[in-house]
Each structure stands twice: as C-alpha cells, then as structure tokens.
C-alpha cells in the first residue's frame, strides 16, 4: 500500500462540483479529495464525463457549479504541477519529429525563443526514454511508431516535470500486456516514490487493480467514490446503472456482467471472459 | 516554331554576362524569399494549410492589383491584401474544416476583384501579368529594402514562436494542457504567413506561391524527420528553386515562374523517390524473414 498522507493538503479538492452541457448533466455534487501519493481510478461508460473531469482539473473546462482546487489553488491552464497523458490520438506519418523530439517538447515546448542548453535537455530526454523503455526507438520518426510505442512516449512526456498531479486518460489503450504492466507500474511508482497524486481514467480496472486506492465510478449523471472493494460490487453498480449488474471476483480479477447494451465497458483481453460469462 | 526556337526561348544564354548584374537585386530577393518560404512552409505542412495559402495569395493579388491601378506601391498593396485574408482566416477558421470552407469562399472573390482591377488598369500589360505569374526585373532597390524588412520580421517572429507553435501544431492536446496559448499563436502565425505570401507573390506570382511555401517543405519531410534537418533542407530547396529559376529565366523570354516551379517539383520528385527507397530498405531490414500469415490477396 502506498504511503498515504491523509493529513497533508490534498492535491485535488473538488467541492459540490457539477458539470452540464445544456440540460445534459455529466455529474453533480461531486466532493472529492485526492491526497498526495493516492492512486484514483476513474471508471464509467463512454460519454460519462471522464475526459471532461480531467479537463476541469487542467483548467481547460469551467465547472457549471462548485469549485476545483489543485495544490491549494483554483485550477488554471498550463500548471507546471500537472503531468498529463491525453486520450490517444495517433500522429500523422509526416510529422517532422523523432521520438526524442516529442519527449523534448513535453519538457520545454511551452517556452518561447530558440532552445539553449541542449546538452542538459538531451540528458533528461535520454533518462525519460529509458524510463519508459523507448530508448530503442528514440531516433525513429513518431509518425511511423505503433500506437503503443507512441503511448509510452506520452508517459515519458507526462513524467518529465515530476508532477504533483498525474492525469492519465486511458493510458493503457493499445499497449500489449507486458507494456500495460510496465506503464502502470511506472505510474504507480511515481505515486508511491515521488508522492504524486494519480487520476487514472480507464475502462479496464484489472491491470491496475493492485495499485488502485480508490475508484470514482461515473455513470448516467451519477457517481460513486470508494475503495475498489466498496465500488466494484453488484449493489453499487446496479444502483449506478439502474439495472441489475453482477460483479464476480476470481484470481484477483474483477469481472462485471450485465452491463446495459448501450454501454461498452469491457474490451481487449477482458472481452472474452466477459462474453463467455454473459452468454451463459 | 521549331524545336530549336523553342529551346532557344526556354534556355538562352546570349549576353548572359551582361544581363547578370542587372538582376543582382532579384537574386538577393530570391534568396530572401527562399529562406522565408522554406521556414514558413514547415508550419504550412504541419498545420495542413496549403489551401489557405492559396486563398491568401489570391487576396494578396487583389491588393497588389488595386495598388497598381491606383499607382501605389505594389508590395504594400499585396501585403495589405494578404494580411487581411490571413486575419480573417486566423480569427474565423479555428478548425481545418472551417478554414477550408472560408478559404473556398474568399479565394474566388479575391481573384475576381484582382481581375476587375487589372481590367481597369491601363499601364503596361507586363505589370499585370507579372502579378499572377511572377517577374524578375521588377525588383528595384526600394522594393528590395521593403522585402528584406518584411523578411526580417517573419524570421524573427518565427524564431520566437517556433517551439510552442510546433508543440501546438503536432500535439495540440498536451500543448493545451501545458498552457500553450494555441489560439493566439495561430493568429500570430497567420499574420507571418500573410506577410510571406505577399513577399513570394513579388517573384513567383499569385498562382504559384505554393511552389515556394509548400513544395520545398513537403519535399524535405519526405526524406527526414529530424526537426533541424527538415528546416535546413526545406530552406535549401526553396532557395535553390528561386535562385536557380531566376538564373535560368534570365536570358529567355518567358516568365520566371515555370522555371521555379519546375525546379521545386523536380526536387520534390527526387525526395519522394529517396524516401520511398528508404522505406523499402528499412522494412526489409526490420523483417528479415516474412512472417507466415494469411495468404496475400492477388
Ligand atoms: N464542450 C462541450 N460541449 C458540449 N458537450 C460536450 C463538450 N465536451 C464534452 N461534451 C460531452 O460530454 C460528454 C462527456 O464527454 P467525455 O469526453 O468526458 O466522455 P468520456 O467519459 O471521456 O468518454 P470516453 O470513454 O468515450 O472517452 C460527451 O457526451 C460529450 O459529447
Ligand atoms: Mg474520454
């Protein structure tokens, strides 16, 4: 278990936070503190407002009601305290950057004028590439890298500033099992060694189950916060979705059965066991 | 006209030594334009703005034609037209889709205005034609000063915004999270682009601006993705096209633009070929043995 300093000032503090677009309510009355070193998983069906929540923390989206603070200050754009892995979008083939240049932009891309001190920058880039296991393709153009390879560069970018708050939007998407483990362990290490608070949006809790301290589950304009053991239960999810849902545990994995058809929950490796159980 | 006449029209080197000093200004102007075109072209490619460049060029042409009609400075006229178009696009066309439709509306309007002004103009017809297809002898010292001044503004402006603009262009989500002011950067870039288009029109003409602002950068991107090398190549290709074009056009009776566009197109073809051969070689090296899989469709 990561050392949680619950007495310390929370990194994220949401109070009575609500967000709606027109009359479509994403969530309302959300009170949430995320402590330093805490690993919070955000789950929920497509369109439930997970990405929008991250945008709120980044200061890119205004709340409709309530307040949001990051490290004791109202969320503002361009905070140096936040690292972010965005929801995946591939780079076009003719992007004039190599892998290492992309990571370098994550470090100093917001600065004006020509680059000075290249040597120091290069050393940092090398260390970050090593950290995510991307040294082997450091010199290759980003446009020709696979989705998973690009995603590891995103992780390197996000960790570059030793952020107090690490926002990850489905960072494991399109990673193979080995790299899913490597990247989630990396993010976990950032939380427990460096004390960063992690907000980890995912559709798939099993690869990170061992690291997760609490879960924020968003669905149908409602939400539930608690430990995985509290939230990932038949009762809670049935209540959230308003239809009967069963949660099984086996071998330390969680299998959710009976999601409403309109909501896609499982994918990738998990889909098989889900379908097998759902079909019976 | 037989083949010899034709060749004589296209390539003629009579009196070359005497003609050369007359175009020193043009050569300097050409080199400056190549530098600007090669630099700006990088972002035109990264931001997918080739069509917008074309639209700005037509409005710049309209401005230049109006200046010609009124007897004002043609360079200022085209700068005014280009900046107006660039501002409209920068402020209204945030997404590529918006930008394309606005460009599609602006472009014929600009071209129509330009044709109107030219039709009303009663001076030398070479002046008229030059705005559309380029000219070399037109650059006098006053204009050269103006051109160089504008080019300095563009180069310094680009140097300042280069890094954040690259970031916002290739990786908008992370750039936004990092607080890069993408909207304001985009407007500033559009203004610099407008200036560059107006400058390029003085040599290659409104119809062929893309050969300076797109082709060299596109060629460079075919052969490398090292950021510094792409910029160096893009500038080198652009300078080579303009200066080479002027030198070839010097003694012939043709406008300069076919020479410039042909050189830049040939460079592009060569780069495509090199890029393609490299891809083939790389995929061979990476996959020594073909992996058994589903039979290929024949
Ligand atoms: N600026 C906006 N204006 C109007 N609606 C918006 C805006 N931003 C987001 N939405 C809507 O809010 C909802 C939540 O979007 P969001 O991207 O947060 O979903 P998500 O939970 O991340 O889904 P996914 O799992 O597909 O990534 C969507 O229905 C989206 O259409
Ligand atoms: Mg999302």
UniProtKB/TrEMBL annotation, chain A:
Pfam families in the record: ABC_tran
InterPro entries: AAA+_ATPase, ABC_transporter-like_ATP-bd, Metal_Ion_Import_ABC, P-loop_NTPase
GO molecular function: ATP binding; ATP hydrolysis activity
Domain of life: Bacteria
Keyword ATP-binding among UniProt keywords: yes
Keywords: ATP-binding, Nucleotide-binding, Transport
Ranges where the ABC transporter domain occurs: 12-245
PANTHER family assigned to the protein according to its UniProt record, in alphabetical order: METAL TRANSPORT SYSTEM ATP-BINDING PROTEIN TM_0124-RELATED
Protein name, per record: ABC transporter ATP-binding protein
Protein's organism: Zafaria cholistanensis
Lineage: Bacteria, Bacillati, Actinomycetota, Actinomycetes, Micrococcales
TrEMBL record, chain B:
A Gene Ontology cellular-component term: ATP-binding cassette (ABC) transporter complex
GO molecular function, one term: helicase activity
InterPro entries: ABC_BtuC-like, ABC_TroCD
Biological process (GO), any one: transmembrane transport
Membrane topology annotation: Multi-pass membrane protein
Primary localisation category: membrane
Compartment(s) where it occurs, according to its Swiss-Prot or TrEMBL record: Cell membrane; Membrane
Keywords associated with the record: ATP-binding, Helicase, Hydrolase, Membrane, Nucleotide-binding, Transmembrane, Transmembrane helix, Transport
Highest rank taxon of the organism: Bacteria
SUPFAM superfamilies: ABC transporter involved in vitamin B12 uptake, BtuC
Transmembrane segments annotated in the record for this chain: 20-44, 75-94, 101-121, 141-162, 199-221, 228-250, 256-276
Annotated family: Belongs to the ABC-3 integral membrane protein family.
Protein name from the UniProt record: Helicase
Native species: Zafaria cholistanensis
Phylogenetic lineage: Bacteria, Bacillati, Actinomycetota, Actinomycetes, Micrococcales
């Amino acid at each position: 278990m990561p050392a949680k300093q619950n007495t310390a000032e929370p990194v994220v503090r949401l109070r009575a936070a609500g967000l709606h677009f027109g009359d479509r309510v994403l969530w309302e009355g959300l009170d949430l503190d995320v402590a330093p070193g805490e690993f919070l998983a955000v789950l929920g069906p497509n369109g439930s407002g997970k990405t929008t929540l991250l945008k709120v923390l980044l200061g890119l989206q205004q709340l409709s009601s309530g307040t949001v603070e990051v490290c004791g200050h109202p969320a503002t754009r361009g905070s140096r305290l936040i690292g972010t892995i965005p929801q995946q979008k591939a780079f076009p083939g003719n992007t004039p950057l190599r892998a290492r240049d992309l990571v370098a932009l994550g470090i100093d891309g917001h600065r004006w004028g020509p680059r000075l001190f290249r040597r120091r920058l290069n050393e940092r880039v090398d260390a970050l590439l090593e950290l995510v296991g991307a040294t082997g393709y450091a010199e290759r153009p980003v446009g020709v890298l696979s989705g998973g390879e690009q995603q590891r560069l995103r992780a390197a970018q996000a960790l570059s500033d030793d952020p107090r708050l690490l926002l990850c939007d489905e960072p494991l998407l399109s990673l193979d099992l080995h790299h899913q483990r490597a990247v989630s362990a990396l993010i976990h290490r950032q939380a427990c060694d460096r004390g960063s608070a992690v907000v980890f949006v995912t559709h798939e809790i099993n690869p990170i189950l061992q690291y997760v301290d609490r879960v924020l589950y968003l669905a149908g304009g409602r939400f539930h916060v608690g430990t995985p053991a509290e939230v990932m239960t038949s009762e809670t999810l049935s209540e959230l979705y308003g239809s009967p849902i069963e949660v099984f545990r086996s071998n330390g994995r969680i299998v959710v059965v009976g999601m409403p058809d309109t909501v896609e929950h499982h994918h990738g490796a998990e889909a098989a066991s889900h379908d097998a159980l759902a079909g019976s | 006209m037989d083949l010899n006449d034709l060749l004589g029209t296209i390539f003629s080197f009579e009196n070359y030594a005497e003609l050369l000093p007359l175009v020193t200004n043009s050569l300097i102007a050409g080199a400056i334009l190549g530098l600007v075109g090669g630099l700006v072209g990088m972002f035109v490619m990264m931001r997918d703005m080739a069509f917008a460049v074309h639209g700005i060029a037509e409005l710049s042409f309209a401005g230049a034609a109006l200046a010609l009609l009124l007897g004002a400075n043609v360079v200022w006229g085209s700068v005014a037209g280009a900046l107006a178009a660039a501002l409209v696009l920068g402020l209204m066309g945030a997404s590529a889709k918006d930008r394309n439709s606005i460009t599609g509306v602006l472009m014929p309007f600009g071209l129509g205005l330009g044709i109107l002004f030219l039709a009303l103009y009663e001076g030398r017809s070479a002046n008229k034609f030059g705005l559309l297809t380029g000219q070399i002898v037109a650059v006098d010292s006053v204009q050269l000063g103006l051109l160089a001044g504008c080019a300095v503004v563009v180069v310094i402006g680009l140097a300042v915004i280069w890094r954040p603009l690259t970031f916002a262009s290739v990786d908008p989500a992370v750039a936004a999270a990092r607080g890069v002011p993408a909207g304001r950067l985009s407007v500033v870039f559009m203004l610099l682009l407008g200036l560059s288009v107006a400058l390029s029109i003085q040599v290659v003409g409104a119809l062929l601006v893309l050969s300076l602002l797109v082709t060299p950068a596109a060629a460079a991107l075919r052969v490398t993705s090292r950021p510094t090398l792409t910029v160096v190549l893009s500038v080198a290709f652009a300078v080579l096209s303009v200066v080479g074009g002027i030198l070839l056009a010097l003694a012939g009776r043709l406008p300069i633009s076919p020479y410039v566009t042909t050189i830049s197109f040939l460079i592009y073809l060569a780069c495509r070929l090199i890029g393609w051969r490299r891809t083939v070689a790389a995929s061979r090296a990476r996959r020594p043995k073909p992996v058994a899989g589903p039979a290929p469709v024949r």
